[in-house]
């Protein structure tokens, strides 16, 4: 399998450190707000990497962090050490504690995560649960002479790491400021230096702050990912995924502090997902187009249509979201499901060898999903048997994650249909015990009935 590595800037043959299990870390959400459809594009990219690895027979150990402290607003302007902590602002805005804010948006995120049928990591690691590990990592850097103290915190001296900027492609001396859009903090030795530990302000009690060898404060955002990744996955990991914005500051900083602390390579393959645009422009809350999954649902879209929409562009290509494009994708997904519902199952039918080969070539060529989707339509249009099509589609769906299996099984036996009708009558008359008894009979036959207020639907149990 080939994967593009943002560090070498080449598409490389994928070789894991341990041949049996691939370690992967994904920079997860900052839980001060709902995650929008841009964020989820990156999480779907991470999901696809994992699914393709599994398709190729690897076991995957995956971690996604939940940033619940330390991600400052200055990050939007290219300096993650300035501005205010997003969690603290949200707490003040919503009149809740920072913990309540984090819990609320984490729970919401996890529901949306499921709606998109994303692969659950082995663990979602909350930054606030790893403060001790972050402090220990900073102490290690301090002992090795990579840190210095200024008035608002402990900083990493990037001039001591010769390879700084290898990932971003930006040389230290070329930078007018950390990201160049803000005046750098004049106390910093180099514009690219970044905070490892920030001290609490003297005039304000923060919602979240911890004692440390340097004084009361909170971790810098970058150190969180390094600490959690090393604790959970070891000092060198196979794959690290994040949005392309992190290529410039967050990830170079993760590399610098991790490699200086351990003396080892931090990550073998860096995978960056390209941004989602909306109506051809930047997404943002201020623009009013930072749509979330429930905005889509309110307009009658299924979350899986969004998942399918993402797969129509390569993960390293910018993708433009419009409601019209989503509508077209949902229509084609429904057409696909409607077709599958008419197919007759045949467990013994052979797989479509040629389509399998083309599909595998596509996914193993840096996760080329648009080609994989085209192969799927080609399979549908072919004159292969319905059983072959279904069996092949089920294999494809290990990567697509479109829950194709839910649409197989068009034949509902007459006997089951009759039982369901009788049950509905009992239900209408309030004879619950009989209705329940029949439901159990239906389930025994391998089917499930879903009730709405006016009707019922029968489907195959999974
Ligand atoms: P955050 O909650 O801001 O920490 O972002 C979570 C993830 O979403 C990060 O990996 C970002 O790089 C990514 N991300 C943010 N905006 C977009 C976007 N418009 N398109 C794709 N990914 C994004
Ligand atoms: Zn990160």
Report a brief summary of the structure:
With 462 residues, the chain is of the alpha/beta class. The chain is built from 14 helices and 15 strands. About 1% of the residues have low confidence.
What does this structure look like?
This protein has a 5-stranded parallel β-sheet with strand order 5-4-3-10-11, with helices on both faces. It has a 4-stranded antiparallel β-sheet with strand order 6-7-8-9. The protein has a two-stranded antiparallel sheet with strand order 1-2. Helix content is 40%, strand content 16%. With 462 residues, the chain is an alpha/beta fold. Helix 10 (353-363) packs antiparallel against helix 11 (369-381) and helix 10 packs parallel to helix 12 (386-400). Zinc ion binds next to loops.
Notable characteristics:
single chain; 462 residues; Rossmann fold; Isoleucyl-tRNA Synthetase, Domain 1; five-stranded parallel beta sheet; 14 helices; binds adenosine monophosphate
Secondary-structure blueprint:
Blueprint: E1 2-5, E2 10-13, E3 21-26, H1 37-55, E4 59-66, H2 86-94, H3 98-115, E5 123-126, H4 131-143, E6 147-150, E7 153-156, E8 194-199, E9 217-219, H5 221-233, E10 237-243, H6 250-262, E11 267-273, E12 276-278, H7 293-298, H8 303-310, E13 319-321, H9 323-342, H10 353-363, H11 369-381, H12 386-400, H13 414-428, H14 432-444, E14 447-451, E15 456-460
Parallel strand pairs: 3-4, 3-10, 4-5, 10-11, 12-13
Antiparallel strand pairs: 1-2, 6-7, 7-8, 8-9, 14-15
The structure holds adenosine monophosphate and zinc ion.
The site of adenosine monophosphate has 16 residues, from α1 and β10.
